[in-house]
Design a protein that fits this description.
Elements (H helix, E strand, L loop, with lengths): L5 H20 L13 E5 L7 E5 L4 E6 L7 E8 L2 E5 L5 E8 L2 E4 L2 E5 L1
Length: 114
């Protein structure tokens, strides 16, 4: 039987530990969305008209233009302070958001409850 060199065993252990560490840090679940943001919003000033944004309490979102309700984009959002990060499998997009007088401001675009 051949003996496996110690450095090879050590290298395999290090790779396994590093992999386990990164796997533990990766977020596969959704995070909670502030209650005031949950629900359906309509507005914005877009070239193809107003858009709908729908946020769920568990961190899911859907968007679609009013004129094309079958054209949806969906994924997850992460909210930290005034930053909201949208992720749908591609590169995440971070925008600013706030709520005032019943209006959602999303990157300076106004949305009303729908």
């Amino acid at each position: 039987m051949r003996l496996i060199p110690r450095f090879l065993v050590s290298a395999v252990l290090v790779v396994a530990l590093v992999g386990a560490t990164f796997a533990g840090c990766a977020s596969t679940g959704r995070t909670a969305v502030p209650a005031a943001l949950v629900g359906r919003w309509k507005g914005g000033s877009h070239s193809n008209g107003p858009w709908f944004y729908e946020f769920s309490a568990d961190g899911g979102y859907r968007t679609w233009p009013e004129g094309s309700p079958d054209t949806t984009n969906e994924g997850t959002v992460f909210v930290a302070g005034t930053a909201i990060t949208f992720s749908n499998g591609g590169a995440p997009i971070t925008a600013t958001w706030s709520l005032a007088n019943g209006l959602l401001l999303l990157d300076q675009q106004s949305y009303m409850r729908a």
